Amino acid sequence: MKIGILTGGGDCPGLNPAIRGFVLRGLDYGFKVHGIRYGWKGLVQGIIDDAPLTVAGVEELIRQGGTDLRSSRTNPYKDPAQLQAVKDNFKKFGLDAIAALGGEDTLGVASKLFKDGFSTVGIPKTMDNDLSETDYTFGFDSAVQVNVDAADRLRDTARSHSRAIVLEVMGRHAGWVALHTGISAGADYILLPEVPLDVDAMCAQVKKAHDRKGYALVVASEGVDLPDLDESEKKLDAFGHVILGERNVGEWLAKEIEKRTGLETRSAVTGHIQRGGAPSAFDRVLATRLGIRAAQCVHERDFGKMVATRGGDIVAVDIDKAVGTLRTVPIELYNSIVTLFNK
Ligand code: F6P
After folding, report:
1. Which position among 11, 105, 128, 283 bears the catalytic label?
2. pTM above 0.85, yes or no
């Protein structure tokens, strides 16, 4: 079988180990796995490797961040000409199936293509950890670790200068990254997109923490809704998402804290640093197992599936279900951890 493999959307640690797992298992089945470069854009433009991936080509990928296949946020369903090119190239290059590694957007395209009669399998990745039907996506654990390291450093400087510091982390519609970072870093307040912002409550908490220990640390998701923010002029990506990093949530919160409490306050943003670097051991294992399971799906011609982790097992679920709704942080979960910072 000739299989195309691509990575789309924001990169994250774990993509390379997943490619490696898929290719190594695929070789057992006799697949020829060809890299499609730059996500769906590569299929639109026919940027597909002539030579199939080999053991030598993938074996070092276990510890490498980013994606060797490169990525883009191309949405071929936005443009009929691009969609036609995708369908034509699928046939022209003689592909029997495509393994797509991505989040809701990239896998949404894989799901639609499957409905249009093309054989696709999805492998879930996103540092946001917001895909349904899977307990975790790889990239998340590595990103949280970067943030915890940053938060520990910020705590040192905040204490030295008796300041409050706001750390802004990624997470478009879901606050998983902020939640896990905040818990792991022992933050004094955690702000998620799922929980309406209460500036008074945040400031009161920051003040209390500062009175008690001489500094305060807030962890905020970039997706938090800020009052009076006019997003009408904001730039959108190909899937219609606002580019959240430009909202400067951390800076806005820091100014508000300083104005209302009188405490000297700074902000820091880990931004794309969260998406680079070597994958954590957890992400290497998860990505590898998902890659191997996806190759099995292809071998069994079990298409229209996304591989997933559930309760420690690796399973195949309907890709359609996985991309239908985002998995956000349940309010009950947030409420249960408020005890950590309401003292
Ligand atoms: O892929 C998800 C994500 O990392 C979000 O958390 C973030 O808002 C967005 O990507 C940033 O996208 P870009 O790399 O295109 O700036």
Report:
1. 128
2. yes
